[in-house]
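can u pls check wat happens w/ pyridoxal-5'-phosphate
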Amino acid sequence: MSKLALHGGPKTIGEGTNFKSSWPRKGLERALCEYTGAQFAKCVTSGTAALTSSLYAAGCGPGDEVITVAYTWVATVGSILRVNAVPIFADIDPQTLTIDVDDVKRKITPRTKAILPVDFYGHPAAIPELMEIAAKHNLLVIEDACQASTAEINGQKVGSIAHLTAFSWSGKPIYSSHGGGAYLTNDRRLYERGLLMGQHPTVIQGLAEDPDILQYASMGGTGDNTRAVGMDSAMEQLMDADARTNARIRNCEYLTEKLADVPGITPPFVRPGYKHVYHYYTCLWDPDEYGVSRDRFCAALNAEGVYAVAYINDANYQFSPESKRLQAGGPIHLRTIFQERNLYGKGCPFLCPHVENPPVYSKGDLPVSEAMAEREFCIVQPYLSPPNDERDMQLMVDAIVKIVDNIGELEG
Ligand SMILES: Cc1ncc(COP(=O)(O)O)c(C=O)c1O
């Protein structure tokens, strides 16, 4: 009987040996597939990396148009620029604050390669309708679920519905306090092509089968590094993600029930069949109801101890040529880069020779996005999540009702 394991002898380190790995990616990737129902998942360094890997996987590059929203966090749009494709903005639906499907139809051209909807504030975009449009026009749908990785549509988890889906766990309610992300897909070819965006050749070699992919693996795909490390904590949090998500939903539903009858405030809309996971709890303020601006109302709310932001304005800064400082912005199509259309100093990717019909980005293009940016206010984490419960939610309701009852103090 041979002694060497190579020749069938006993292994020195057997299957059950508990060697700790600092790269438990595979466990998390498997867990993400089990959790979402997606067939493939690749952990990467961030949600942004998950988006760029997905866009690269979808073959988006110079001259290709990708339809997305200007009502989002900048990384959605930045990832399109990163692959040198051209962002084309569709407006949003005024209720869900996610991409307007009819406007997507209007924006499709022969140059459109992909649609990149965002599950904004935790409410999934209309992915089933977008998949139908994509099938008709031979496009791919890349879902930015960075704010909604536990959301569902008609009982199906996001991550398993679109052609590609991006998750993030940097400071998100489900996976708090770590960087990291993943892209998910049911399509082996897309999965393998995404690896080329930033995985090491040894990683690609272990995961890809297609010779067309393997032949480009030798320099580490595009030479980027999007390799994920240290995902243990995200793995742990995935284990009770649904319980924590559902507790947050209960808190938010309590807020909605209590705020439903407060004049001037429209609580978040939830489309039937859609599981809104409340990355933020976003209401609309009607400035005409009391003659008080949203910003004044928010300032009063903050003073009462409820941290609320106008996300699209406050989280998306714009450079002011007058003050030479960053100031509140608005939807992304109004940013300097889209006005100048010149990312590298040579006009690319907006005006390069591959672009047949350079888009013009103007104020007034996206009336719903522009109007909602002036009306929304968002109650943010960690207020909404457990261990906070109904008593904490009631305190926030009390603060809002107190302001409305004393609105005269804010007028003028
Ligand atoms: C909608 C959206 N997309 C993409 C990202 C990018 O994720 P990350 O910060 O992990 O790169 C974020 C981050 O907050 C986001 O909110």
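The two ends are 93 Å apart (CA to CA).
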